[in-house]
């Protein structure tokens, strides 16, 4: 990929919407696959009362719209300002109690797990039914649109074209505790070709720092898959 093409798909612009300032991709087609579209606001005339506590709106009880769901609430039910990176807002925005809770849970993905994915990890990688595996570093691109796999060869998998994600895990360790992911199978389509391709990632078997990094990457990718499915269902 040329540097000119890469710069074009990573370019962003600052826009002002009714909900606040947003830093969005210059070209809509290059947006993050984890992103959410801004919801339409419920018209003022259709919500004379708070949609949470049923308080009647008047001169003293003002009406506010949640930036995540678009519904109408009073200040008590929609007074929190919480970061909403999935909609590309520059600053924290007003959200209702339920949406604020979801956004705070997602913050862990953007603050921690996204960095793990972009930092990359080493796996034994198998494409399709090939019997031979290749040691490759797998990481998420800076624009969150591609899985980049580098070893003796180079491959790119577009996140938006991944249809199935399955995580393989081992049983709990002898001392107890949670199960740990050991590998992952991805199915994805390639533009211009029929059918789907399967990609299998397997973490190393030793107890090294590299394996721990791979296990953390798999856990982060599992969370990313959930966000991806939610974006598609919007």
UniProtKB/TrEMBL annotation:
Region (Disordered): 168-192
Domain FYVE-type: 44-99
One example GO MF annotation: zinc ion binding
Keyword vocabulary terms for this entry: Metal-binding, Zinc, Zinc-finger
InterPro entries linked: FYVE-type_Zinc_Finger, ZFYVE21_C, ZFYVE21_C_sf, Znf_FYVE, Znf_FYVE-rel, Znf_FYVE_PHD, Znf_RING/FYVE/PHD
SMART domains: FYVE
Compositionally biased residues, Polar residues: 179-192
Transmembrane segments: none
Residues forming coiled coils: none
UniProt-recorded name of the protein: Zinc finger FYVE-type containing 21
């Amino acid at each position: 990929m040329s540097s000119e093409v890469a710069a074009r798909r990573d370019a962003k612009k600052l826009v002002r919407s009714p909900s606040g300032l947003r830093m969005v991709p210059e070209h809509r087609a290059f947006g993050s696959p984890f992103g959410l579209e801004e919801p339409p606001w419920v018209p003022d005339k259709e919500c004379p009362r708070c949609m949470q506590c049923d308080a009647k709106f008047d001169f003293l009880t003002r009406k506010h719209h949640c930036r995540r769901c678009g519904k109408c609430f009073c200040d008590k039910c929609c007074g929190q300002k919480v970061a909403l990176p999935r909609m590309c807002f520059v600053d924290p925005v007003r959200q209702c109690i339920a949406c604020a809770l979801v956004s705070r849970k997602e913050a862990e993905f953007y603050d921690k797990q996204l960095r793990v994915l972009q930092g990359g990890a080493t796996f034994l990688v198998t494409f399709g039914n090939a019997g031979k595996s290749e040691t490759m570093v797998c990481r998420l691109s800076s624009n969150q649109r591609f899985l980049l796999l580098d070893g003796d060869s180079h491959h790119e998998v577009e996140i938006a074209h991944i249809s199935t994600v399955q995580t393989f895990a081992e049983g709990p360790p002898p001392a107890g505790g949670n199960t740990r992911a050991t590998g992952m199978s991805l199915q994805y389509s390639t533009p211009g070709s029929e059918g789907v391709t399967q990609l299998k990632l397997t973490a190393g078997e030793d107890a090294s720092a590299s394996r721990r990094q791979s296990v953390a990457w798999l856990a982060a990718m599992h969370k990313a898959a959930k966000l991806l499915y939610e974006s598609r269902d919007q």
